[in-house]
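FIELD: query
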Amino acid sequence: MTAALKLAVPGDWDRRGLPAWTYHSPALLELEKKALFRTHWQIVGHVSNVPEPGDFFTVDITDDRALVVRGDDGVVRAFHNLCRHRGSRVTAEKSGHCERAFVCPFHGWVYNLDGSLRGPARPQTFSGLERSKFGLKPIDLEIWMGFIFIRFAQGPQGSVAETMAPHAEELAAYRMEEMVPGAAPTEFRLAVNWKSVRDVDNEGYHVAMAHPALHDLYGSRYFDEPYVGGVSRSEGRFERQGGRLWTVRNYMALSTGPQWLDTDKRQLWSYFGLFPNAVIAVTPELVQFYQEFPLGVDQTLIRGAVYRRPGETREQRAARYLATRIDRETGAEDVQLSIWSNESMKSSGFDGFHLSDLEKGVRSHHDHIRDLLPVTTLAQQPPESEIEALNRRLLLG
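FIELD: result
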């Protein structure tokens, strides 16, 4: 008999996170792919990644593959990177420029930049083929403040603009749609469950202990806001002087931001978490996104990209370099924390989280997961073969 988590103690809040079994269950991971990753908006790039007609990039998200391309008409579209003949990738390249049409490398089917089928190879062997029915399958796409979001299936979210509305005025001040790539996108694999990565990133309680550069930068001037409506917010403010570490000291001296940026944002690093797996991070010099995609129960792909302002001065470029270096050091420290956190889930001595008041971001993220996958409220792991059916019954109440 499975046991559900107890209700929070009156006058307090339930400080437990998801139970350990949810971090190593293959059956639950399949539900997460469907209910979290396939049905929620995923940030995949920026309009500056496809500036000209024919420019494209691809991205794999769990079991799905996407192709994003700017058409001859200037419109940015997204399609399943899936040939309608036998399912081959239409292109295996991460990014590039397609002059006229995509040619499937398997059998040579040809697709126009708007996704329509120009024609199959040896068309005489396909009697009665209606080309209009065999174009690339479209994917929902929305551009918001210059960033490109896709969604493979409709789900509980509204549009990106509706989801991000509470933060739209704040982020509009950064003119993110004007930014251009600051470096090549990054990807690397980490041998942990994707939730362990997100758990670390969803709270700043560990900053003072685990992140010397960040703590040197803004110390106690950091706070987190939990996920509300699928979005969280965190911020840290820094001074114009001081800093024990040379990277922080020099960054403080050089970071001024563009003159048109609001004064209160010229000493602010802010982070916006987008459920289930992404963050948009903004400093006076840059904006970046990073996200994690599950490749397996204990395998996660970390993906991200940095964008800069066009026409940087030398000082702004140097400040961006230092900001990126501080962030890179912080990321490496978070990798180790994610490994330690993830490995504990299989230990016989682990008996659950006991969250601080400073870790409500973790709890609120877990609550979002529980709402969509109520099977995760069960303290004891059900049999793998029963997880999907049990979750379906719980959803029905």
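FIELD: remark
Residues 1-11 have pLDDT under 50 and may be disordered.
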